[in-house]
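Marked as duplicate of an earlier ticket. Keeping the data here for the record.
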Amino acid sequence: MLDLVVNHTSHLHPWFVESRSSRSNPKRQWYIWKDGRGPGNRVPNNWRNNFFGPAWTFDEETGQYYLHSFLKEQPDLNWDNPEVREAIADVIRFWLDRGVDGFRLDVPHIYCKDKYFRNNPPFYACERSKTSVPLSDRLLMSNIMKLLSLPELQKRKYNQHQPETHEVLKGFRSVFNSYSGITSVGEVITDDPSQLVSYYGRGNDELHMNFYFELLHCRWTAGAFKRCVDRWEASLPPEAWPAYAFSNHDVIRTASRYDRGGKGWKRARMLVLMLMTFRGSPFIYYGEEIAMKEVRLPREDLRDPIGVRWFPFHRGRDGCRTPMLWDNGPNGGFSKQQPWLPVSPEADTLNVSAQESDPDSHLNFFKQLIWLRKGLPALLGGRYESLTEGIPGEIYAYLRKHEKQNLLIALNFSSRKQEFVLSKSKGIKQLIISTDPDRKEIGRAGSITLEPEEGILVDLN
């Protein structure tokens, strides 16, 4: 799959070079240009970019402002222009003709803007959706970012999630459908499940899948994860296929995000078990296979504009973007040349080569679950059903139900042993796998005891 970034281009792209060359250039309307306001030639409106500062930059040569939702070096394309839509459709065909299997769409919710370019309201005017994840279920920093609408400090009402975007995505889907075996997944940012669902379209005529990013912000409690997944599953129409991930290039790695009292490794294994047993398609961020940790970089090594600007208050996202650790050789086996970012100081021991030879390693646990997923009908296409009756509050338990198979997944989020009885179960047949390498069996029929921070996959047939 290819990362399709078409909300914007580089300011050095030939299209933008032409666009900014003169107001009469044929590609002028391929980007969003506006006159300034008032005698002081102020910015066209109050929109701010997703990193810091105004979303408008003044071009001295042509005397107008251009819009950029991110850095000033990333001018936004004008998706109201049919020529832009057709040009990007040609880009998509270019890659499909070369055999890619699909696309991850970068920020499609930002493609189209309000046609009147109205000012965004301030952050305190934001209204939380009734279906949004409760603040008590989210990590503290996630709540701060959300409540203050950081970094813009305004409600992003008019510069994203515009209805015209769905027309664009329907056009993309028609191109996808003209090829066989193509899929797509959207990086749509919203805390409203109903809004996210809209990007599947009607009858799934827009994107094939959409990431549900609220999972990346859950507090480490069974209830938080259960409510988050239940909310998303209840929001999806029958034909929609979920996409799940616990990490990406914008958030702290899971082995560090949930590392309290040295429990990061155990908790990372629990997340792997969840990811590989949820309904839908699991997406693995590189390095999660070996439980790579966040790297704390000094200021001189930072490359992310956010970290460079806001250090030490915000170190940016470079800590989760350091090179993959392959072995204990130079640069972690990633490259013979100096990489863009420094290699983790744990590269000597935390690497693929070291874990391949350890049967109980995080890597081999991941491999086992991938092969299990390929072979178990309930994981491939079974329904999801969470359990509450007889389940302690510290345990998140759910079933994957298929006509040929019923599977139980139970995860203990506490630091104490937890026991529960499946009231409707006729007896446990088989332990398939546990996050605890030392566990070999379940115990007496019907009753299950979980060790602290342990998750299990059980066949109930």
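See parent ticket for discussion. The chain has twelve helices and 16 strands.
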